[in-house]
Amino acid sequence: MKKIIAVMILSIIWSAVALAAGTEYRMRVDGLVCPYCAYGVEKKLKAIKGVEKIDVDLNAGLVTVDVAEGVTLTAPQMKTLFQDAGFTYRSMVKKPLNEDAKNE
Amino acid sequence: MSRVSQSRGLFNRRVLGAVFLAGLGVGPAQAHDPIFGIGPHVIYKGGVEVAPEVHTSKKGNQRETALGIELTYGLTGDWSAGVDLPYQSSQDGLNDASGVGDASLFTKYRFWRHDTLGVQETTAVLAKVKLANGNEDTTPSVGTGSTDGILGLSYGYEGRKWYRWAGVRYRRNGENNAGLRRGDKVLVDLVWGIRPTPTSYLQPDTVWLVELNGEYGRHAELNGSSLPNTGGTEWFLSPGIFWTKRNFAVKFGVQIPIASHLYGRQDKTDYRTRLTLEWHL
Q: Nearest 5°: phi and psi at B171?
C-alpha cells in the first residue's frame, strides 16, 4: 500500500512538473554570421520576460529559445525583433518542452 | 622672407606638419568593419557601442598618437549615430604638443541588406563631420582649426568563412581662421577577410583581414593659393585581425605604404597603426 501511495505521489509531482513546463521555440534566421553580431539577438530576446534559455547555432541559422509556461512568442514579434537586431527572421517551430514539436 | 612664405612655413609646421591622422577620414570601427577602411555594419537598435582606441602614425620626423573613445548608438536596426572624442599627441622633430583633438560626429545608414543562411550582404552610406574644437595654436598643432565633412559609401559581404568589403569616401576640408585649407581627399578601400575556423556562438572568434587602402589628396590652399608640397597619392597594404568573444572585440591593424606619388617635396608615410577595443552594451 505504501508503495502504491508513493508511486501515486511521484506521478502527481511528475505530471505537475510536466504541465508547468514551458515552450521551446526554434527559429530559422538568415544573416547570422558571427558570434559578436549575434549578441544583439541574445540581448533583445533576454529583454522578453519569461525567456529562460537562448542558444544560437550560426552554421544552421537557428536560434533556440526556451520560455517559461504561459509565455508566447509570435512570428510578427520575432520578425520585428530580428529586424531591429539586423537579421532576417524566416520561420519558427515550437514545442512544449515535454511534447512533440508543433509547427507554427 | 616674404610674408606669404612665412605664413606658408607656419602653415606647413602647424597644420600640415601634424594632425595627419585627422586628415584620414577614418570611419567608425563598428563590429566587423574594416580597420582602416569603412564598412556597412551598424549596431542593433537600442545598442550602445563603446570603443576606446589608439591610432599612431609616423611620417618622416613627425609622429602622432591619438587616444580616443567612440560612442555609437543604434537608432534603428539599420541606422546608427555616434561621436568620436580624441586626445592627440603630436611630435614634429624636437617639438611636441598634446591636447584635446578635433571631435567628430558621425552617422551611418544601411539602406540595403540581403540575408541568406550564414551570409549577409549590405550597403550603407556614412556621413561624418569633424569639428574644429582642437587646439591649432600649439606647435605642432593638435587641432586642424577647420570643420570638415566626409561622405562614404560601403558594401560588405560577410560569410561564415569569407569576408569582403569595398568602400569609397570623399573628404571635403574646410578653411581655418588663417585662411588655410587642406586639400580634399578621396579614399578607396578593398578588403578581404577570412575566418579560418568557423566557431560557435560562445567561443572566441578570430577573423584575419588584409586591406588595400588608397588615398588621393588635392593640393592644400592658403588664401586661395595652391601649396605645391602638399597632396598626392598613397597606397597601403594593411594586415589586421578581429578577435571577438560575445560582446567584446579587439581589432588591430597596421598600414604599410606600398606606393606613393606625393606632389613636391614631402615625407612619405612610414606606417600607421590602429588598435580598438570594443564593447556592445
A: -115, 120
